C-alpha cells in the first residue's frame, strides 16, 4: 500500500500546485524513488483514459471511501501496469471491480477503433514542458554562486556566463549552463537535466526550484533580522529562500495544514541549513494577527492553494480546466486569506502569488481585496524589467507579474507585491527602490546585476 499511497499523494500535490513531479517524488520519503516515479509518470500519461474508466465503471460511486487519486493509481496498475503488487484492502477492492473495469476498457477500444492500450493515448502534446529549463537556486546559506559554478565545471559542464535574454535560456542543450539574467543566485540548465542524485542537491547546497517560484521571496526582499510569516509554506522551497535572503538573521513563522508535508519540509529546511524558523500545523486563517508573538511581523509571503493551472510537468498529460464552480471556490478562499494576511498590524510588505493562469485567482483577487482595504495598501511596481505583466483587469494591474513557458521560460505564475500606505510611509512605487534596505539581496540592486563575489565557505563541496 505504501507505493500506491505515495503515488496518490504525488498526484494530489501536482494537482494542487505544490511542485513538479520530480521534486514531489524525491521529497515523498518513499525509499524506492525510481519505482514511484515510473508509476506516477505512467499514471499521468494515461490520466484521461483512467478518469473515463473510473467514471464509466462508477468506481468512486460504489466505493465512497476510495480517494480519487488512489483509484487512478490502482486502476493503472491493474489494467495497464504489471498487475497489483501490493495494496492490502485497496488491492482487494480494485480486484472486485476488475471485470467491470476490463469491460469498460474493451468498450473504449471498440468505440475508438483501436486494439492496443497505447493507441488510446492522445499524441504527446506538452510543448510547453520542453521550453522550461532546469533551474538551480544556489543555497547561499551553505555556499556561493562561484563555488557551485566551479563544482559543475569539474563535473564536465560548460559554463556560458550570464544569459542575455530569455531566448538564451530556451536554447540550452547538452552539458551547458548559464547564470540567469534576472535572479543573481539562479543557474540554468537544459530541461531534462536531473540533479536529484547530485552531491550538491543531497547536501543542501543547491535547491531545485523553478525560476517563477523564486520570484515571491526575491520580491518580498525582507531585511536581515526581519520577522516573516510564510502563510502556506509546504513544501518549503520558498521558506528556505527567505532564510537565505535573511542570512538566517530573523524569524520565520511557517504554517501548513498537512502533517506529512510539514515533516518533509522540516527535513528539507534542516538539510538546507535553515535556522530561526517555527513550523506550525495550523490553518493560517485561524492565526490571530493580534497575538504578541506576531507583533514584529513586517513581511508576509502568501502562496495559497490554487488551481495549479500554470504548472507544467515534464511528463505529457491531459490538462483539465477547472470548472467555474471550482475557480469561484478557490477565489473566495484566496480573497479571505489575503484579507486576513493584511490585518497583521505591523505588516509593511506582502507578496501574493499563485501558480495559476486564471484571472479569477490572480488580478481579480488582488483587486477585490484592495478595494475592501481602501487606501491602506497599494500595489508595488514589482520588477519593472520583467517582461510579462498582469492582465489589464483594473488600473494598476500592470504592476503585477505573470510568467509562462512561452514568455519567460518558466512555469505559469502570478505575483503581486502589496505595501502599506500612509502613516508616514511613502506611496508604493518600484520594488527595487523599496528593497534597498537589503542591499545584499538581488532585488535591492539593479535588475539582472551580477552577484557579488563572496568569500569561500568552509562547507565547500569538492
UniProtKB/TrEMBL annotation:
GO terms for biological process: rRNA base methylation. SUPFAM superfamilies: S-adenosyl-L-methionine-dependent methyltransferases. InterPro entries: MeTrfase_RsmB-F_NOP2_cat, MeTrfase_RsmB-F_NOP2_dom, NSUN5_7_fdxn-like, NSUN5_RCM1_N, RCMT, SAM-dependent_MTases_sf. Residues 428-462 are annotated as: Disordered. Residues 124-421 form the SAM-dependent MTase RsmB/NOP-type domain. S-adenosyl-L-methionine binds at residues 232-238, 256, 283, 303. Keywords: Acetylation, Methyltransferase, Nucleus, Phosphoprotein, RNA-binding, rRNA processing, S-adenosyl-L-methionine, Transferase. It comes from the Eukaryota. It is found in: Nucleus, Nucleolus. One of its GO terms (cellular component) is nucleolus. PROSITE patterns: SAM_MT_RSMB_NOP. GO terms for molecular function: RNA binding; rRNA (cytosine-C5-)-methyltransferase activity. Pfam families: Methyltr_RsmB-F (PF01189), NSUN5_fdxn-like (PF21148), NSUN5_N (PF21153). Residues 451-462 have a biased composition (Basic residues). Belongs to the class I-like SAM-binding methyltransferase superfamily. RsmB/NOP family. This is 28S rRNA (cytosine-C(5))-methyltransferase. It comes from Todus mexicanus.
Amino acid at each position: 500500500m505504501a507505493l500506491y499511497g505515495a503515488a496518490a499523494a504525488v498526484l494530489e500535490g501536482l494537482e494542487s500546485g505544490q511542485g513538479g513531479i520530480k521534486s514531489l517524488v524525491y521529497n515523498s520519503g518513499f525509499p524506492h524513488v525510481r519505482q514511484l516515479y515510473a508509476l506516477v509518470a505512467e499514471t499521468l500519461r494515461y490520466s484521461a483514459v483512467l478518469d473515463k474508466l473510473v467514471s464509466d465503471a462508477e468506481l468512486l460511486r460504489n466505493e465512497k471511501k476510495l480517494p480519487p487519486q488512489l483509484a487512478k493509481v490502482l486502476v493503472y496498475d491493474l489494467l495497464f501496469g504489471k498487475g497489483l503488487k501490493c495494496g492490502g484492502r485497496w488491492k482487494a477492492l480494485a480486484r472486485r471491480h476488475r471485470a467491470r473495469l476490463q469491460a469498460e476498457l474493451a468498450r473504449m477500444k471498440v468505440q475508438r477503433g483501436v486494439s492496443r492500450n497505447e493507441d488510446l493515448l492522445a499524441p504527446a502534446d506538452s510543448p510547453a514542458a520542453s521550453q522550461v529549463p532546469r533551474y538551480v537556486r544556489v543555497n547561499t546559506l551553505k555556499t556561493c554562486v562561484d563555488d557551485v559554478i566551479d563544482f559543475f565545471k569539474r563535473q564536465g559542464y560548460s559554463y556560458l556566463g550570464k544569459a542575455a535574454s530569455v531566448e538564451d535560456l530556451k536554447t540550452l542543450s547538452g552539458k551547458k549552463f548559464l547564470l540567469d539574467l534576472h535572479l543573481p543566485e539562479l543557474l540554468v540548465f537544459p530541461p531534462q537535466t536531473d540533479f536529484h542524485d547530485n552531491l550538491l542537491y543531497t547536501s543542501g547546497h543547491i535547491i531545485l526550484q523553478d525560476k517563477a517560484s523564486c520570484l515571491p521571496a526575491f520580491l518580498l526582499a525582507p531585511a536581515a533580522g526581519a520577522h516573516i510569516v510564510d502563510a502556506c509554506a509546504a513544501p518549503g522551497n520558498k521558506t528556505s529562500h527567505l532564510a537565505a535572503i535573511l542570512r538566517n538573521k530573523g524569524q520565520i513563522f511557517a504554517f501548513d495544514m498537512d502533517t506529512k508535508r510539514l515533516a518533509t519540509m522540516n527535513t528539507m529546511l534542516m538539510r538546507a541549513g535553515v535556522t530561526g524558523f517555527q513550523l506550525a500545523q495550523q490553518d493560517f486563517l485561524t492565526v490571530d494577527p493580534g497575538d504578541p508573538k506576531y507583533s514584529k511581523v513586517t513581511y508576509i509571503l502568501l502562496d495559497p492553494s490554487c488551481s495549479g493551472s500554470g504548472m507544467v510537468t515534464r511528463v505529457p498529460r491531459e490538462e483539465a480546466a477547472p470548472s467555474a464552480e471550482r475557480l469561484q471556490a478557490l477565489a473566495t478562499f484566496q480573497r479571505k486569506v489575503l484579507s486576513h494576511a493584511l490585518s497583521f498590524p505591523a505588516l509593511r510588505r506582502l507578496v501574493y502569488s499563485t501558480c495559476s493562469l486564471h484571472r479569477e485567482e490572480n488580478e481579480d483577487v488582488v483587486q477585490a481585496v484592495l478595494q475592501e482595504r481602501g487606501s491602506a495598501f497599494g500595489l508595488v511596481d514589482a520588477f519593472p524589467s520583467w517582461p510579462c505583466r498582469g492582465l489589464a483587469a483594473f488600473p494598476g494591474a500592470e504592476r503585477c507579474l505573470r510568467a509562462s513557458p512561452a514568455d519567460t521560460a518558466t512555469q505559469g505564475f502570478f505575483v503581486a507585491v502589496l505595501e502599506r500606505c500612509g502613516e508616514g510611509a511613502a506611496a508604493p512605487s518600484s520594488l527595487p527602490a523599496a528593497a534597498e534596505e537589503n542591499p545584499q539581496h538581488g532585488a535591492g540592486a539593479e535588475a539582472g546585476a551580477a552577484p557579488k563575489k563572496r568569500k569561500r565557505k568552509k562547507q565547500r563541496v569538492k
